[in-house]
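Task: sequence design from structure.
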């Protein structure tokens, strides 16, 4: 993921946060940080990546008969999923950078299209750039703003939109997702969470004008733009739009997740959660029985309890004395 100018990692481990200017500290979470409060099950994927690392290792046949070498290989496999995730994130940054520079070029602003294209070529990733180009041409994209940072005061969050564009005369908010390729050569499908990300962007109240000066302006792109997510792969792109009928559901979920993030921050700042506990002083303790003896006031194991006197037993209403 790219790093917007006013975004910064929270020193307390609460994800990425935004500030209003370079002179102010971060105060609100990013859209992606809020969405990350939703649990995501990755155990299966991590296990698969670790197993794949072992299975694909060129020295697997040589080390299989040597327990010590096999253990070392297994230890390296533990980090395989994290290494793969970092690599995928860095690739995504390069693709996003290329798409941003393409928009800046179309807007007539200073750009680094060739530099970002070369960064992809050096790693054999030029296919992703071609997919961005094909999407751009097929949809007749007319950029309005690239990497636009937005702010919502009412709920308290901020984020950065990949692209605001006009397509077929309509304002669109666009989010790029770099995806892998399936066995049949098609780009892999997008996760539904991208809808929540775009809806949160649509609910912006302000957009950034100048990061250095910390100046903002009211959101100028309406409450009903077309929300588009583009899966960018090596072989092709696939564009989808968010169904207008489900927007409110994703917005409701996002609002709840924002409250979850806020509750976590409040709990962490309330003070230390777990405190050490020492036993009470000996004088405050009741006499302790010898090992194997019951506590004071209780019968020993196997010793019958004193029976309740017969006179104290209740007599049922229907019973007659002497019967």
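Answer:
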């Amino acid at each position: 993921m790219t790093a917007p100018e006013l975004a910064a990692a929270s020193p307390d481990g609460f994800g990425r946060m935004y500030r209003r200017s370079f002179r102010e500290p971060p105060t609100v979470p990013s859209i992606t940080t809020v969405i990350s409060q939703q649990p995501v099950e990755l155990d299966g994927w991590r296990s698969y990546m670790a197993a794949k690392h072992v299975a694909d290792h060129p020295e697997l046949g040589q080390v299989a008969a040597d327990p010590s070498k096999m253990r070392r290989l297994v230890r390296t496999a533990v980090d395989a999923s994290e290494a793969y995730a970092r690599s995928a994130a860095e690739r995504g940054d390069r693709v996003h950078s290329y798409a941003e520079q393409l928009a800046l070029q179309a807007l007539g602003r200073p750009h680094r299209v060739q530099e970002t294209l070369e960064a992809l070529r050096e790693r054999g990733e030029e296919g992703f750039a071609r997919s961005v180009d094909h999407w751009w041409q097929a949809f007749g994209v007319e950029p309005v703003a690239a990497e636009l940072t937005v702010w919502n005061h009412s709920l308290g969050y901020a984020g950065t939109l990949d692209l605001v564009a006009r397509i077929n005369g309509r304002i669109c908010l666009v989010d790029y997702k770099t995806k892998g390729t399936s066995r049949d050569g098609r780009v892999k499908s997008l996760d539904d969470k991208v809808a929540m990300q775009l809806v949160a962007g649509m609910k912006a109240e302000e957009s950034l004008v100048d990061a250095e000066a910390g100046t903002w302006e009211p959101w100028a792109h309406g409450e009903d733009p077309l929300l588009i997510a583009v899966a960018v792969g090596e072989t092709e792109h696939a564009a989808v739009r968010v169904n207008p009928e489900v927007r409110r559901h994703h917005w409701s979920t996002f609002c709840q997740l924002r409250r979850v993030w806020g509750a976590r921050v409040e709990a962490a700042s309330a003070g230390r959660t777990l405190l050490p506990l020492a036993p009470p002083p000996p004088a405050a303790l009741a006499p302790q029985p010898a090992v194997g003896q019951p506590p004071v006031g209780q019968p020993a194991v196997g010793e019958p309890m004193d029976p309740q006197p017969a006179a104290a037993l209740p007599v049922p209403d229907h019973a007659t004395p002497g019967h």
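The longest strand covers residues 142-152.
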